[in-house]
Amino acid sequence: MLLKNKHAVIYGAAGSIGSAVARAVAHEGATVFLTGRTLDKLEKLANEINATGGKAFAAVVDAMNAEEVNNHLVEVTNQVGTIDISFNLIEIENKQDIALTQMSPDDFVYPVEKTMRTQFITSTAAGRVMMKKGSGVILSLTATPGGVGYPLVGGFGAACAALENFSRNLAVELGIYGVRAVNIRSAGSPDSRPFKEAMIAQPEVLGSVINKMKGDTMLKELPLIADIANVAVFLSSDMAAKITGVTIDVTVGTTAGLNHRTTDIEKSNE
To answer: Fewer CB within 10 Å, N- or C-terminus of the chain?
Structure first.
């Protein structure tokens, strides 16, 4: 087991990505502390993990509230001694499909302010705990707009870029204490909750959007939730002990080069 005897705190654990990461790290032996704002969903996930041989605990924690986050970490460290993994995966609402020139200041700033507030609170709280032990990893998640210009994403793109910068700076400051900070950049997982809900509401529109997103990737595929969870497991393990201060790109090559025109190459080779 890659994460045997490690302790992970996951914020937004009841969400589609949060729950997948929780299951994955628990499967690899970590004790998982699930947090969020809906206790019944968290307890259901904890029961599922425990029933399959893992070890999980659920707690209501508002990841926007510094006092609640710090109090929860005190409880966790009193229970198990320390934490080894912190991953904030709470979902932040944002308005997209509106040109920046047509967007209100409040709508643009909202996802940036909310994202950075919660990530700062949870990451620095985890950092203070991990510094005492001299090890640990703080993970974060962004998307394609964090690495390439992307139209009509509003403040979401700015939030991704800000979070990636914050993760790098955090890694620089915590590295001398043996603590790592790594960001994961995804191209968007079509099996995540936002995509599934949009597919139900507007199947024809979203189907076209997903096909275009796939067309921009090098492999003509988008990363699934399981792909993100697997990367999180690896980065949390000792196998990634020397990886810090970077963003691990899981956009299937999109931020390295938009590949929607590579179908022309295939046609020319026919």
So the answer is: C
* pLDDT tens digits, one per residue of 9-51: 999 999 999 999 999 999 999 999 999 999 999 999 999 999 9
Domains of the chain (ranges; CATH) run 7-189+223-253 (3.40.50.720)
140 Ramachandran zone, left/alpha/beta (phi>0; psi -120 to 50): beta
Q: Is the dihedral of CA 224, 120, 72, 80 positive or negative?
A: positive
- Tokens 């997982």 identify what position? 189
Tokens of 237: 């393990």
* Cβ–Cβ under 8 Å, residues 114 and 162: no
Whole-number CA gyration radius for the chain:
19
> CA-CA distance, 56 to 69, in Å (whole number)?
18
CA distance 270 to 266: 6
- Tens of pLDDT along 246-265? 999 999 998 887 666 555 54
Q: 142: which strand partners?
A: 185
Nearest to 69 by CA among 115, 120, 131: 120
Contact 114, 64 (CB under 8 A): yes
Q: Which one-letter amino acid corresponds to residue 57?
A: F
